[in-house]
Amino acid sequence: MKHLTERQSEILQFIDHYEGTRGYWPSIRDIQLRFHFKSTNAVMGHLRALEKKGYIGRIHGQARTFRLLHRVAPSNDEKDMPEDAIELKELPVYGNIAAGYPDQVESGGEIGRLQVDVQTAGFSRSQRSFALKVRGESMIDADIRDGDFVIIEQREPRDGDIVAALIDGETTLKRFIQKSGEPPYLKAENAAFPELYPINDLSVQGVAKAFLRSL
After folding, report:
1. Range 14-28 average pLDDT
2. Mean local confidence (pLDDT), 146-158
3. Exposed, middle or buried, 134 (CB in 10 Å: 0-12/13-18/19+)?
4. Residue where a domain stops, chosen among 21, 43, 76
5. 96 and 149 share a domain?
6. What is the CATH number of the domain that holds 140?
7. Catalytic: 27?
8. Which residue among the candidates 107, 174, 179, 214 is catalytic per the annotation?
9. Is the pLDDT of residue 56 over 70?
10. Among 61, 80, 93, 192, which is least packed by CB within 10 angstroms?
């Protein structure tokens, strides 16, 4: 790989950290504000240099959209972190999810952010993750209660996963059940709630990896 200037290395580290904590790239404007450039043209100049040196690449069909090809080496501070250091990731909170009977789809806008211990939560940095606040008691036998936050990782579900799902146009948090040769359905972890079978459509928005509870 070709040598990076100090500023190019700083920009690449910023992009890497931003994507790792939020699950998506910073905008050109975000980079401009972070490094106090006078114009977005200056940002594009640095991005083109990083592209030419092989650290980022353009996404086909999207002229101003890039992806990371190579990451910069960790800084000395990161290398010197103690073995028992906690790695935190900041996740967006995208509203509430019904853990009861399915409810109307919540707004997709970000309503807050959570800092999560990556190792404890057990999610992958390579997958986009977000948090939802639980409403209802249909998952109490899985120890997920009203008011908890669930960490959702966007990946395909497996039989038995707890998922954030959209069933016939309404959202809910349930266990995903799919037996060989049979259509999938949703199962509550509370005997007071019925199993849910889709009439028209069942789609999974993500898999629950962990939950957080305020004491």
Report:
1. 79
2. 91
3. buried
4. 76
5. yes
6. 2.10.109.10
7. no
8. 174
9. yes
10. 61
Checking phi first, is residue 78 left (phi over 0); if not, alpha (psi -120 to 50) or beta? alpha
Same domain, 55 and 133: no
Annotated active-site residue 2? The verdict is no
pLDDT value of residue 22: 72
DSSP 99-125: SSS-EEPPP-S--EEEEEEHHHHT--T
Residue 92 has pLDDT above 90, yes or no: no
> Confidence band (pLDDT; 50, 70, 90) for 68?
confident
Among 63, 69, 64, 61, CA closest to 16:
69
Residue 169 has pLDDT above 80, yes or no: yes
Please give the residue range of the domain that contains residue 164.
88-212
Token digits of residue 122: 């057990």
Which has the closest alpha carbon to 184: 160, 208, 164? 160
Q: For residue 1, tell me if it sits in a domain.
A: no
Number of structural domains (the chain) is: 2
Task: Name residue 112's amino acid.
Answer: G
pTM of the predicted protein model: 0.59
Region 145-173: mean pLDDT is 92
| Catalytic pick among 89, 133, 138, 209 | 138
The reply to whether 169 and 110 lie within a common domain is yes
